[in-house]
Each structure stands twice: as structure tokens, then as C-alpha cells.
Amino acid sequence: MYAIIRRYQTEHARAIARKLQNELVPLLHSAPGFVAYYVVDEGNGVQSSISIFEDQESAEYSNKLAAHWVREHPMFIEEPPDIASGDVLLHTTAEDPQLAYG
Length: 102
Description:
Blueprint lengths: L1 E8 L3 H18 L3 E10 L2 E8 L2 H17 L9 E6 L2 E2 L8 E2 L1
Antiparallel strand pairs: 1-3, 1-4, 2-3, 5-6
Helix pairs in contact: 1-2
């Protein structure tokens, strides 16, 4: 699995989350290799998104989708996001408490 974390400066976290739910999330769901997507309001004008994909190629495709969405909605995003990405080395869920490596 491969993860991308994007951190945005914004004062419109809830409005962006609603727009993401209606516009970007359906695109991500249809993207190849999609696993999960989360949006976190960190407070103090910072919002993060966490995207999980089966592989790096699928995740990089999602970067293009997200970048296009941000360009289409400049009134919500004050600055380009900080982006971190990489292979998921360890994961677990409530449904499957067994640890899975890489």
C-alpha cells in the first residue's frame, strides 16, 4: 500500500470537507487502486487529507486528481499543500487487528 498526506492552510475546513465529499471523493472512489481517504481538521487553520492506495502508481494518479480539484477551487486553499508520501510499512484495523507489514 502507498499513502499520501496533504496538509493545507485554510480557514474553511468544514466547507472544504463538504465540497470534497461531493466532488473529489467520488473521483477518488473510481480511481484505480483506491483503498481509503480521510480528512482531518487539525485546528489553527490547518487541514490534512490522507489517501491510501494499493500502489504508488495509483496514488500518483490521485495526486493529479487532487491538484486539478485544488486549481478549480482556489478560493478555499490559501497556499499549495505540503505533501508527504511513501510506502505503508505497517497497518491494522479494528475489523482485522492482525498487524500487516508492507
